[in-house]
Structure prediction request, 135 residues.
Amino acid sequence: MRRGDEFEWVNASPSENTRAGIAYFPYDTVLPCSFMFTEEFKPHTLVLDVIFAAKIPQERQVEISLVLARLNDDQKSGAFRLDMDTGYVYFRQSCLLENMDLTETQLSQLLRNLDKLGLDTADQYAQMLENEFGS
Prediction:
């Protein structure tokens, strides 16, 4: 797989009910981002995380949580989150696929739509996140 291709599944999960994938994009933002897909099978759900390279020190986590809550008010799909253990900020969106009989073409289109929303989110918020979270 080459950088710029859609995605690649890499199953690093100990659970047979989950598989993870990495999305490759020829895309640069002010604040570097990683894109990770997770497919859960019970219930069948597809999740895309846009992980921002912004590690929040523990003493700022409450303050940043309030900023993220305000950002989430404006989101039509997905939400910003803060991993309190690692301090990383990410944007998560998910799509419930349970009982949907999707063809490979339809699933690929759904993945492209999730990709686009993730890229648009990274592009729209990267500078603001860098300003807020920069060390």
